[in-house]
Design a protein that fits this description.
22 helices; single chain; 47% helix; alpha/beta; eleven-stranded mixed sheet; 12% strand; two-stranded antiparallel ribbon; 607 residues; Rossmann fold
C-alpha cells in the first residue's frame, strides 16, 4: 500500500487546486468590477470620440471582405464534393472524440499521463496539463487548429495566392481564438484575476484606454516602456550633425573616430517604413558607430515622417531629394564624387532602382552597394504578399486619398501580424489582462515608433514591387526611363538573414542573379533585425558564404561555408578589398552648413 495513493489522496490535490480559482474577497472584487466599468467607459470614449469627430474612418470592412472571399473559395472546394466534405467532418469529429475520451480518463485519474504535445509557450502553465478542464480546452483548440490548417493544405483546387491568403488568415484566427488569450480559459490569468480580486483588469483597461488614445482612435499596442527612451539621449546617440535638409530627407554626417578614414565615404539609405536608428540603437548595438570606429566616413539619410504635403511624392522624388541629394551633400562635404552605399530593406530596393536609373543616365556616383535584407525580385516575398492584389491595393489607395498618406499604425499592425504570436498576443495578455506595463526594450521601442507612408510612394511600391514585380522584370519606369537591374555593374554585397519573415532569404537569393555585376551573397543567422544588428562583441549567431548565388537556394546553403559570429568584419573586409585608400578625417561642417545635432529633427516626429 506504501506506493499506492488512496482515493482521498488523489482528490486532495484537485481540491486545493480549485481553491486557487475561487474569489477570496467578494467585496473587493465587487469594488474592482465597478472600477472596471468606469475604465471600460474610458476605452469606449477613446475609441468613439475620434469617429464622432470624423477624424477616423474605419476600414475594417475591406480586409474582412477579402478574408470572407478567400474562405468562400476554400469552402466551395470542400463542399463541391459531398464525400470530400464528409471525410473532413469525420476527421474533426474523430479528433474531438479522442479529446473527450482522454478528458474522461483525466477526470477519473488525475495522475494519468499527459499526451505528448509540441512545445508551445502559450501552454507552459502546469494546469494546462494537470487540470482536466483546461486540458480539455487546450486539446480541443489544438485539434481544431490543426484541422483548419489541413483544410487549406489539402485544398487542391486553390490557386497559390488564394492558398497563401487562406493559410495566413487561418493562422491569424487560430492565434486569436487560443484559450490562452482569455481570462476564464487561461489558468494563469484566471488565478491572477482571482488573487488580485480583479485589480489586474482595472489596470489593463486603463492601459487599453491610454493606448487607444495614443493611436488617435486605433489601438497602438505598447510593446515597450516608451518613457524610458529619449531619442538623442539614450538611443540614436552616435555623435554627428545634420548637414543638409530637403523636403524628404535630412543628411547626417557622423563625427570621425579614427586618425585616418577610408577615402571613399559611406552612404546609408534606410527604409522610410521605419526610422534609421535601428542602426544606432545604443553604443553597443550601433552599426553606425561601429562603422565610424572602423574608419568609415558615415553619412545617413533620415527620411521625413510624411504628411499631407508629401502626398504626391513617389520614388522619383525619394531618389532625387533623398539619394541624389545625399550624394551632392557628400561631395560638398568631402570632395569625393563616388561613395560606398548601404541600403536596408525597402531602402535597399530604392537604392537598387536608383542604381539602375543612374546606369541609364551614365551617373557613376556609387562605386559599391551593400543591401541589407533587400528584395529586388518579389516572387518569393513571403506573407506580405497576402495584403497585395488588385482589389486590396485599390481599396488602400482609396483610403489614402483623403489624407494623402497611410497612417503609421496601419503598417505597423501589418508587420506585427506577420509574427502575431510574438508581437501581438503576448502583449495583449501582459498589458490588458495582467495589467502589467511591458519592460523597456530599445528594439521594441523602435518597432513602435512608426512612420507614415506618402500615398504616391506607397502605391508605387506595392504596385511595382509586390504586385507587378516590375523591377525584376526590367519594366520599372523612373524619370521617363525603363530601368533594369542588369545594367548595374558595380559590386554588390547582398546580405540575407535565415529566419527573415519580411525579405525571405530565398527571395534575396533569387534577386542576386538579376544584377549585371559581381554579387557576393551572404546569409546571416537570425532574422530581419537581429541578423543585421549583430555586433561582433556580442559573439552571437553565424553567417554563411559560398560561391556565385545561382541555381537552387537550398543547394547553395548546403555547400556554403559557415563562420561563427557577426558578418560585420567580413563586410568591412569586402569594402576594403575594393578600395582601401585612406585620407585624414573630414571635419564635420567645414564645407557644409550645420543645421542641428544628430539624430536631427525628422526622426523625432512621432505619430
Amino acid at each position: 500500500m506504501a506506493g499506492r495513493k488512496t482515493s482521498q489522496e488523489k482528490v486532495q490535490p484537485e481540491a486545493s487546486a480549485i481553491e486557487d480559482y475561487l474569489v477570496k474577497n467578494p467585496e473587493e472584487f465587487a469594488v474592482n468590477i465597478s472600477h472596471m466599468m468606469e475604465e471600460a467607459g474610458k476605452v469606449a470614449s477613446a475609441w468613439s470620440a475620434p469617429r464622432e469627430k470624423g477624424e477616423v474612418r474605419d476600414t475594417v470592412a475591406e480586409p474582412m471582405a477579402d478574408m470572407v472571399k478567400t474562405f468562400s473559395k476554400l469552402t466551395e472546394y470542400w463542399l463541391s464534393d459531398p464525400s470530400r466534405a464528409l471525410e473532413a467532418q469525420t476527421r474533426l469529429y474523430s479528433g474531438y472524440m479522442e479529446v473527450w475520451t482522454r478528458s474522461l480518463t483525466k477526470v477519473a485519474d488525475p495522475d494519468a499521463p499527459d499526451v505528448p504535445q509540441p512545445v508551445d509557450k502559450r501552454f507552459k502553465d502546469p494546469d494546462w496539463g494537470r487540470n482536466a478542464f483546461f486540458d480539455f480546452l487546450r486539446q480541443t483548440y489544438l485539434v481544431t487548429s490543426r484541422w483548419a490548417n489541413d483544410l487549406v493544405e489539402h485544398a487542391d483546387g486553390l490557386d497559390e495566392h488564394t492558398r497563401h491568403k487562406a493559410q495566413f488568415y487561418v493562422r491569424q484566427i487560430s492565434q486569436a481564438i487560443s484559450p490562452s488569450n482569455f481570462i476564464l480559459t487561461n489558468p494563469e490569468l484566471f488565478r491572477e484575476t482571482v488573487s488580485s480580486n480583479g485589480a489586474n483588469l482595472v489596470r489593463g483597461l486603463k492601459m487599453l484606454a491610454e493606448d487607444i488614445q495614443a493611436g488617435k482612435g486605433d489601438l497602438k499596442l505598447r510593446q515597450s516602456d516608451a518613457s524610458r527612451f529619449k531619442i538623442g539621449e539614450n538611443i540614436a546617440m552616435t555623435p554627428g550633425k545634420v548637414v543638409a535638409r530637403s523636403e524628404l530627407a535630412e543628411i547626417i554626417q557622423y563625427e570621425p573616430a579614427t586618425k585616418e578614414v577610408l577615402k571613399r565615404p559611406l552612404l546609408i539609405c534606410p527604409p522610410w517604413i521605419n526610422k534609421f536608428y535601428i542602426l544606432d540603437l545604443n553604443p553597443e548595438k550601433s552599426f553606425i558607430r561601429w562603422a565610424v570606429e572602423q574608419g568609415h566616413s558615415v553619412f545617413v539619410i533620415s527620411w521625413v515622417n510624411p504628411d499631407e504635403r508629401h502626398a504626391r511624392m513617389g520614388w522619383e522624388a525619394y531618389i532625387d531629394q533623398g539619394i541624389r541629394f545625399a550624394l551632392d551633400t557628400i561631395e560638398t562635404a568631402t570632395g569625393e564624387k563616388q561613395v560606398n552605399s548601404v541600403g536596408y530593406c525597402v531602402g535597399g530596393t530604392l537604392l537598387a532602382a536608383a542604381l539602375a536609373l543612374f546606369a541609364k543616365s551614365g551617373e557613376k556616383r556609387i562605386a559599391s552597394a551593400t543591401l541589407f535584407t533587400t528584395q529586388v525580385d518579389f516572387t518569393h516575398a513571403g506573407d506580405l504578399k497576402v495584403f497585395v492584389d488588385e482589389d486590396q491595393i485599390t481599396a488602400l489607395e482609396h483610403a489614402m486619398e483623403t489624407r494623402g498618406y497611410l497612417e503609421g499604425t496601419k503598417m505597423a499592425t501589418a508587420f506585427n501580424m506577420l509574427r502575431a504570436g510574438d508581437l501581438i498576443w503576448p502583449y495583449v495578455i501582459n498589458n490588458y489582462m495582467r495589467g502589467k506595463a511591458p519592460m523597456p526594450f530599445d528594439l521594441l521601442y523602435w518597432n513602435s515608433d512608426s512612420t507614415r507612408m506618402s500615398a504616391a510612394n506607397h502605391s508605387y511600391y506595392l504596385r511595382n514591387c509586390y504586385l507587378e514585380n516590375s523591377l525584376a522584370a526590367g519594366k520599372m519606369m523612373l524619370g521617363g526611363k525603363k530601368v533594369a537591374l542588369k545594367d548595374i555593374k558595380v559590386p554588390i554585397y547582398n546580405l540575407a538573414t535565415r529566419e527573415d519573415h519580411i525579405a525571405p532569404a530565398k527571395s534575396v537569393f533569387a534577386g542576386s542573379g538579376l544584377f549585371g555585376g559581381p554579387v557576393d551573397y551572404v546569409l546571416a543567422g537570425s532574422g530581419h533585425i537581429a541578423g543585421v544588428v549583430n555586433p561582433p562583441a556580442a559573439g552571437k549567431y553565424q553567417f554563411w558564404t559560398g560561391g556565385t548565388p545561382k541555381g537552387n537556394f537550398d543547394a547553395w546553403v548546403e555547400k556554403a561555408e559557415e563562420t561563427a559570429g557577426s558578418w560585420w568584419p567580413h563586410w568591412d573586409a569586402w569594402i576594403r578589398a575594393h578600395e582601401d585608400a585612406t585620407v585624414r578625417p573630414r571635419k564635420v561642417g567645414k564645407s557644409t552648413e550645420v543645421l542641428t545635432d544628430a539624430p536631427g529633427d525628422y526622426v523625432k516626429v512621432r505619430v
